[in-house]
From TrEMBL, chain A:
Domain 2Fe-2S ferredoxin-type: 2-78
Gene3D superfamilies: 3.10.20.30, [2Fe-2S]-binding domain
Keyword Transmembrane: no
InterPro entries registered for this protein in UniProt: 2Fe-2S-bd, 2Fe-2S-bd_dom_sf, 2Fe-2S_ferredoxin-like_sf, 2Fe-2S_ferredoxin-type, Beta-grasp_dom_sf, Diverse_Oxidoreductases
The protein's name: Carbon-monoxide dehydrogenase small subunit
GO molecular function annotation: 2 iron, 2 sulfur cluster binding; metal ion binding; oxidoreductase activity
PANTHER family hit by this protein: OXIDOREDUCTASE WITH IRON-SULFUR SUBUNIT
Automatic annotation (TrEMBL), chain B:
GO MF annotations in UniProt: iron ion binding; oxidoreductase activity
Xref: Pfam families: Ald_Xan_dh_C (PF01315), MoCoBD_1 (PF02738), MoCoBD_2 (PF20256)
UniProtKB keywords: Molybdenum, Oxidoreductase
Disulfide bond as UniProt keyword: no
Protein name in the entry: Carbon-monoxide dehydrogenase large subunit
The Aldehyde oxidase/xanthine dehydrogenase a/b hammerhead domain, residue ranges: 21-139
InterPro entries, per the entry: Ald_Oxase/Xan_DH_a/b, Ald_Oxase/Xan_DH_a/b_sf, Ald_Oxase/xanthine_DH-like, AldOxase/xan_DH_MoCoBD1, AldOxase/xan_DH_MoCoBD2, AldOxase/xan_DH_Mopterin-bd_sf
Source organism phylogeny: Bacteria, Pseudomonadati, Pseudomonadota, Alphaproteobacteria, Rhodobacterales
Length: 161, 787
């Protein structure tokens, strides 16, 4: 067991982990931040995406020990202090960008990373960026629409609600 | 103006807030103090005789609590099958035992052999690796037709052969169908495969078993679409625990698509082990485990023949299908290729004579059961493909050939046992043509051609039987369960309402849509109504969510219970207003006396029910809570027309979906936003089936597609923005809401549209290709073009 310390959603967090403990396990099991999900064991689905030092990372591909000293943000850290949804979260609700909600935390974290790199992505750019995030429920239509809306683009022209 | 509340409005989903902030409560988020973890040691061979399972070395490993093998389950029941099919000769299907842990033999890769319970998941996994299993590998049967040959290895030694059943439908029509084929002016024949799929809800299955010595009560937390069904099956047939000592909870569930209907071995194991060990036991499937233990879907091999007269009227239809059951009968597996498939073979057409033959076959593969659409996509695909082929052979417009044969008068009794109550197939086809700009196709094709690409357009129809299901009818058809739904409407003293339902939401937005119905009926604000579901301890016995049934059946139960509430509340209001009950009207959340300005508010009536100081106690009881069980009198029949436009790269065989349009008739719609979302999701799954997905086994029964590296899930780049319309509405005539169900339509209607479009693109380019089996991967398309 080794001790790891990091900042998670602005607060100091530490715990004892085995060498093989993944960041996603540390978040879910040690810190009980269960908003970050595990949907696969081959780093393909993106349900586990969090931000580490400002970059989107699949938390199933990183050891907890590797995140020692890092600045980590999870879905639990995205809403305002008063619980209000941020722009991306609100756009997902407004445009029905989620159904079962299981892929949603990863989608929101990926979307946030995309918009910080590319504030006005085209439809194609959004779809390409989501290459590592699988959603089985929504057919992506409303996810892409929500992300474009969150970037301030007019999505009224996109087919039917 | 769209409505802003009640039926027909699209309020934002209330469940979204918790999902968007990481506050959802999925089964894997549940941890019980002192819980142990189980790891299943699974077979890595498809077929073998278990000579011995030596756990001695593993027992001594760190953290191991106990190791279970098949022997521990000898006194325990097997996993039951919920549907018995009777074959062509009046004999019951062959039904093998399905032990919780393998006994004597393993029958598919992934079949659980032993279960290690340990203090941590890592310890359980490490110890499982130390178990020594001596398995004598036996030849596996994978191909269905080979499995039926004389001398084929038997999946179950105690059965006569690998044939589960040979079903004929309608057997009495067989001779008349043959005769009609003899007289046909034209016969179109098509052989096709409906590819094996893996549902892949993004949340893998999880089970947590708990046991209280204080109350002798077991609790199972599980990723289920129907907790009451699991309680009934597991309690009564597997573990022998009566309902009052067994609670099943399905909290937030991350997608189901059918695969979370069934009762699985891991659920029974965790409940059993928690009782044995008096300690909570948790299992979380890895995705790799899900691939080899979740029931798969589809996997039919079919020959379909369509007979037409000289005027191109359909005169008869004949099919022969081989349906893979896998190694064991999953909960509803036998019903999928029969009653959910044969009954839909009429489609949207007035073909007078139909004969469907289905041979269900055991193989050394994962069990196959319902997956989004279940049987109906298989029916739709073969029918809509053969019609397209017929149109090409006859040189007629595929749309016109369909229109000519549409059922146009309702109710319509098909020759395959079901009666369509209502529909308007020309209306959805008209709508579709308006959406897709068919006239502009040639210009778009020309533009594609300039870039060296081929373009094709595919159109098709679909119909499905939803609102599953009338209990007396399905009972005659072999169901071992009733298929009603339940609701308890509990009006609280200050007027807020809790609605307990047996249906379950795993993405469908019940918490938002159901209150719209109740609030509309009572004229109160939706925020006053909450939906409670997913826990057998606080919901009435109900059958759960699948088969696009929740609103049509569960919603109808809510309507009935709410009607009872209104009746009683009117009695209370009449008393308070000193008026006759017959004169009381409920409007906008207040009761008034007709023709007067006397009225009493909703909250005053509900308070009187619980503080009955001034109350007609001699006439009615205090309290305001009613339960209704609703059993539908017929299925519902959503139907529609779909179109797909593809572009094909002739150099690589790669197909891209350029446009996809869906015109559906779901009857009345409660929340258009949610309905549209359901269609989007179904379309992506259908496009996935058509272009990308396919579970593959090698000849030894090894699963070649065991992870997302090999099983291609549709991603954002694989689909376009969809055009979806549900403005054509012929309300269902036999349920109080006039709704039909929308959950499966997209997955049912879309695969033939894609394949029709690809064949169209190739034929326009002069290629003599009449069919390609799904998934239409670049290599298959390229091979068909150049073969
Ligand atoms: S759980 Fe990390 S990518 Fe799937
Ligand atoms: S909303 Fe269910 S997987 Fe995306």
């Amino acid at each position: 067991m080794t001790k790891v310390t990091m900042t998670v959603n602005g607060k100091a967090a530490s715990g004892d982990v085995e060498g093989r403990t993944l960041l996603v396990q540390f978040l879910r099991e040690n810190l009980r931040l269960t908003g970050t999900h595990v949907g696969c064991d081959t780093s393909q689905c993106g349900a586990c995406v969090v931000h580490v030092n400002g970059k989107a990372v699949k938390a199933c591909t990183m050891l907890a020990a590797e995140a020692d000293g890092a600045e980590v943000v999870t879905i639990e850290g995205m809403a305002g202090a008063d619980g209000s949804l941020n722009t991306i979260q609100q756009a997902f609700q407004d445009h029905h960008g989620l159904q079962c909600g299981f892929c949603t935390p990863g989608m929101v974290m990926s979307a946030a990373a995309l918009l910080s790199e590319n504030p006005k992505p085209t439809e194609t750019e959004v779809r390409e960026y989501l290459e590592g995030n699988i959603c089985r429920c929504t057919g992506y239509h409303n996810i892409v629409k929500a992300i474009m809306a969150a970037s301030g683009q007019d999505v009224g022209v996109i087919a039917a609600e | 103006m769209p409505k802003d509340h009640g039926i027909g409005a699209s309020p934002k989903r209330r469940e979204d807030v918790r999902f968007l902030t990481g506050a959802g409560n999925y089964t894997d988020d549940i941890n019980i103090y002192g819980q142990a973890y189980v790891h299943f040691l699974r077979s890595d061979v498809a077929h073998g005789k278990i000579n011995s399972v030596d756990t001695s070395a593993a027992e001594g490993m760190p953290g191991v609590v106990r190791i279970f093998t098949g022997a521990d389950f000898e006194g325990v029941g097997g996993l039951p099958c919920g549907w018995q099919v009777t074959d062509r000769h009046g004999e019951p299907m062959q039904e093998p035992a399905h032990p919780v842990l393998a006994q004597g033999k393993v029958r598919h890769v992934g079949d659980p052999i032993a279960a290690v319970v340990a203090d941590t998941p890592e310890q359980a996994r490490d110890a499982a690796e130390a178990i020594e299993v001596d398995i004598e590998e036996l030849p596996a049967v994978v191909d269905m037709k080979a499995a039926l040959q004389d001398g084929a290895p038997k999946v179950h030694d105690d059965l006569k052969n690998n044939l589960c059943y040979d079903w004929g439908f309608v057997e009495e029509n067989k001779a008349a169908v043959e005769e009609a084929f003899g007289k046909a002016a034209h016969v179109t024949t098509l052989e096709l495969v409906n590819n094996r799929l893996i549902a892949n809800p993004m949340e893998p299955r999880v089970a947590v078993g708990d046991y209280s010595r204080a109350t002798d009560e077991s609790t199972l937390y599980t990723t289920s679409q129907n907790p009451h069904v699991i309680r009934l099956l597991m309690g009564a047939f597997v573990l022998g625990i009566p309902e009052h000592k067994l609670r099943v909870v399905a909290p937030d569930v991350g997608g189901g698509f059918g695969t979370k209907i069934f009762h699985y071995a891991e659920e029974a194991f965790c409940t059993f082990a928690a009782r044995q060990l008096a300690r909570p036991v948790k299992w979380t499937a890895s995705r790799s485990e899900a691939f080899m233990s979740d029931a798969h879907g589809r996997d039919h091999v079919t020959k379909i023949e369509l007979a037409l007269d000289a005027d191109n009227n359909f005169t008869a239809l004949r099919t022969e299908t081989y349906a893979n059951m896998g190694a064991y009968l999953s909960t509803f597996a036998p019903s999928v290729p029969t009653w959910l498939h044969g009954t839909l073979m009429a489609g949207n057409y007035k073909t007078p004579l139909i004969y469907v033959n289905v041979k269900a076959v055991f193989t050394n593969t994962v069990p196959v059961d319902a997956y989004r659409g279940a049987g109906r996509p298989e029916a739709t695909y073969q029918l809509e493909r053969v019609i397209d082929k017929a149109a090409r052979e006859l040189g007629v417009d595929p749309v016109e050939l369909r229109r000519q044969n549409f059922v146009t008068e309702f109710p319509y009794a098909t020759p395959v046992a079901v009666e369509y109550d209502t529909g308007d197939y020309n209306a959805t086809m008209d709508k579709l043509l308006e959406m897709i700009d068919r006239e502009g196709f040639d210009a778009r094709a020309e533009e594609s051609k300039k870039r060296g690409k081929l373009r094709g357009l595919g159109v098709n129809c679909y119909i499905e039987a939803c609102g599953i299901a009338p209990s007396n009818l399905v009972g005659q058809l072999g169901a071992r369960a009733g298929l009603y739904e339940s609701a308890t409407v509990r009006v609280n003293a200050t007027g807020s309402i809790s609605v307990m339902t047996g249906s379950h939401s795993h993405g469908q937005g019940h918490e938002t849509a159901f209150p719209q119905v109740i609030a509309e009926m009572l004229g109160i604000d939706e925020s006053m109504v909450d939906i409670v579901h997913g826990d057998t301890a606080n919901t009435p016995m109900g059958m759960g969510t699948y088969g696009s049934r929740s609103l049509a059946v569960g919603g109808s139960a809510m309507v009935r219970a709410t009607e009872k509430i209104i009746n009683k509340a009117k009695k209370i209001a009449a008393h308070l207003l000193e008026a006759s009950e017959a004169d009381i009207e409920l409007k906008d959340g207040a009761f008034s006396v007709a023709g007067t300005d006397k009225s009493v508010a909703w909250g005053d009536v509900t308070l009187a029910a619980y503080v009955p100081h001034n109350y007609p106690l001699e006439e009615i009881e205090p309290g305001l809570e009613e339960t209704a069980f609703y059993d539908p009198s017929n299925f519902t029949y959503p139907a529609g027309a779909y179109a797909c436009e593809v572009e094909l790269d002739p150099d690589t065989g790669r197909v891209t979906i350029e446009r996809f349009a869906a015109a559906d008739d779901f009857g009345n719609v409660v929340n258009p936003m949610i309905v549209t979302g359901q269609v989007h999701g179904g379309l992506a799954q259908g496009i996935g089936q058509a272009l990308l997905e396919g579970a593959a086994y090698d000849e030894n029964g090894q699963l070649l597609t065991g992870s997302y590296m090999d099983y291609a899930m549709p991603r954002a780049e694989d689909v376009p923005f969809f055009q979806v319309d549900h403005s054509c509405q012929t309300p269902c005539t036999h349920n109080p809401l006039g709704v039909k169900g929308c959950g499966e339509a997209g997955a049912i209607g879309s695969p033939p549209a894609v394949v029709n479009a690809v064949v169209d693109a190739l034929q326009r380019a002069g290629k003599d290709v009449t069919h390609i089996d799904m998934p239409l991967s670049p290599s298959r398309v390229w091979a068909a073009m150049n073969g």
